[in-house]
């Protein structure tokens, strides 16, 4: 398909259908365990039809990741340097947890890419993501210097937020099996726990 020619409504619909099916397949089986045949079957389209829109499995995977990156960075972009430090960081934690609730397949897609060494989005991680982390780390360092929050390493603070929130998407099956039927929705308790933990972690020592 000519990428420069505007897509018809049917082409837009089929492209969206393929990407939705690919997200389901990739998030379940990972990149290496997924095949074009699986994606075609899940999409309800023939494999030749799928290849009309995307030349390869990698092209589909890369398209999904590129579309995901803006969504993934948005919660950190919203960390407001002029806001209350603890409120801003807790709000960021809650936004990341909400993403795990709303976009579990996307989270697993991203995690699988990282586990493989980020071959398709390494440039974005070393570029756009690193630049954003550096920018927000300076904000957190200023809050620390002003005595508004406890002294913590800003980057490791962000790493801990990522791991503690994305766990509920990437290890959803484990979480639900351990909590059992009496806790069918882990997210309300997770939010309360993380709010308490990070509030205590960030509390500045009284002077």
Q: Which geometry do the CA atoms define?
A: globular
Rounded average pLDDT: 93
How far apart the termini lie comes to 65 Å
How many helices? The count is 10
Helix content: over 70%
Number of domains: 2
Query: In CATH terms, what is the fold-level topology of the largest domain?
Result: Tetracycline Repressor, domain 2
* Largest sheet data: none
- Report the structural category: mainly alpha
Number of strands: 0
Strand content: under 5%
Low-confidence segments = none
Q: What is the CATH superfamily label of the largest domain?
A: Tetracycline Repressor, domain 2
CATH architecture assignment name of the largest domain = Orthogonal Bundle
SSE string: HHHHHHHHHH
Rg result: 20 Å
- What is the top-level CATH class of the largest domain? Mainly Alpha
Question: What would the keywords be for this entry?
Answer:
207 residues; mainly alpha; Tetracycline Repressor, domain 2; 10 helices
Any overview of this molecule?
The structure is a single chain. The protein is mainly alpha-helical. It has 2 domains: about 1-55, Arc Repressor Mutant, subunit A, CATH 1.10.10.60; about 60-200, Tetracycline Repressor, domain 2 (Orthogonal Bundle). Helix content is about 75%, strand content about 0%. It has 10 helices and no strands. The mean pLDDT is about 95.
């Amino acid at each position: 398909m000519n990428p420069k020619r505007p897509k018809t409504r049917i082409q837009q619909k089929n492209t969206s259908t393929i990407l939705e099916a690919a997200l389901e397949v990739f998030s379940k089986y990972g990149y290496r365990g997924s095949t074009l045949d699986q994606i075609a079957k899940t999409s309800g389209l023939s494999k030749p039809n799928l290849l009309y829109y995307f030349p390869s499995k990698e092209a589909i995977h890369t398209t999904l990741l590129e579309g995901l990156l803006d969504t993934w960075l948005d919660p950190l972009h919203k960390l407001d340097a002029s806001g209350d430090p603890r409120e801003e960081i807790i709000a960021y934690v809650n936004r990341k947890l909400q993403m795990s609730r709303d976009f579990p397949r996307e989270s697993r897609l991203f995690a699988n890419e990282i586990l493989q060494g980020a071959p398709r989005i390494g440039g974005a991680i070393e570029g756009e993501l690193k630049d954003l982390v550096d920018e927000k780390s300076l904000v957190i360092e200023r809050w620390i210097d002003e005595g508004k929050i406890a002294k913590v390493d800003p980057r490791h603070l962000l790493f801990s937020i990522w791991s503690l929130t994305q766990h509920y998407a990437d290890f959803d099956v484990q979480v639900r099996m351990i909590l059992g039927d009496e806790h069918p929705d882990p997210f309300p308790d997770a939010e309360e726990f993380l709010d308490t933990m990070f509030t205590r972690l960030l509390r500045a020592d009284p002077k």
